[in-house]
Amino acid sequence: MAATSLLRLCAAAALALLLLVGAAPLTEAYDPLDPTGNITIKWDITQWTADGYVAVVSINNYQKYRHIQAPGWHLGWAWTKKEVIWGMMGAQTIEQGDCSQFKGNIPHCCRRDPTTVDLLPGAPNGMQVGNCCKGGVLNSWVQDPVNAVASFQITVGRSGTTNRTVKAPKNFTLKAPGPGYTCGAAQKVKPPTKFISLDGRRTTQAHVTWDVICTYSQFVAQRGPACCVALSSFYNETIVDCPKCSCGCQNNITNPGSCVEVNSPYLASVVNGPGKGSSTPLVRCSPHMCPIKVHWHVKANYRDYWRVKITISNWNYRMNYSQWNLVVQHPNFDNVTTIFSFNYKALNPYGVINDTAMLWGLKYYNDLLMVAGPDGNVQSELLFRKDPSTFTFEKGWGFPRRIYFNGESCVMPQPDLYPWLPSSSPRLTKTAFLALAIVACATVAFLYNHLVLDKYCGKS
């Protein structure tokens, strides 16, 4: 009895350990597909003033495939002294705070913990600086490095006016626009940033430069899945759809109005109503309830090549996904030859092994994934060359190991549900057929002789 209890205790401990190990990747900011990816905030003091300084603040997205989409980033911090913001260009604080102690010249913000947002496109020229006014949207570094940077200028008062007396802000926060990013302390950079003039003939240097590193964690973001994967193939009639309740379940009692039926008479009013453009998903009713569905279809098999069709469908009635991207893990990406209507970049997270690809739309063609409806999908086909040493359609090899949409891991079907090759008799080679024919003839001859001998021996 004691031995049985001990075995049960060990089994429970082992199960708990497995669950912890399985959950570990989500609890860390480390991304195995982008181990050095981060967002770096650079604070460059370029000019001293009578009671403070002028600084250029840059937000650099060094993440390969994760970007910040509308409604954009929110950058916050806490002052270490009694600083105020006299003015800003290229951005603004969302609250002014209590500036009642000031007479005449009123600061832009008097809060001890200001939060800034980017200006919208089309802001007046007098309020713009370089790399500003994108509505807070930051593209990923691989996808669009030119638009992976945001900048604004800030004039700070009631602070130090020399390298020794000025203090860096603390407790930086970056929201995109929700949680997910954790920022470290500001670190002084030596030598400070150098700026090159537009004509390239003069270089100036910041008086002080601080760097703040922010990393992303899905565990900190506290987000549930937002996408799922369906699988199908030409050699099997079965279509393995997204797992049920991948991104939530339909529940009209506890969560009414969470989804909309396609044939609902209220669909037009709901979609075109006040909630249009909201970051809260309003999805088409489905068993999986995901805003994004990715369909991987093994389309054709040739002698030296095989072909895959990828369809990305937007089931969200409230959001256009601009500058979307897809990261796919499959062992045959080392032999990809042609990708139609998508951009492609090998990420190579494991050095020389190429099994991870980043795909995104062509500019002005399909880089905007429209809201749910007839135009709410983008498609492409991938042509792979066969490697005789590894290629097979058996045991689900033709399907991806993992898919990410906009940096978020999509829910995959269970491996035992993948469309397998159909059960059929194997084709025989000429040698095997001849061998079987000889065995069959020998068996017939043996039985015939045996029956004849029994017949005559029985009579004698």
TrEMBL record:
GO terms for biological process: cellulose microfibril organization; plant-type cell wall cellulose biosynthetic process. It comes from the Eukaryota. It holds the Pfam family COBRA. The chain crosses the membrane at residues 432-453. GO terms for cellular component: plasma membrane. Keywords: Glycoprotein, Membrane, Signal, Transmembrane, Transmembrane helix. Residues 227-414 form the COBRA C-terminal domain. InterPro entries: COB_C, COBRA_pln. Residues 1-29 form the signal peptide. The keyword Cell inner membrane does not apply. Belongs to the COBRA family. This is COBRA-like protein. It comes from Triticum urartu. The gene is LOC125553603.
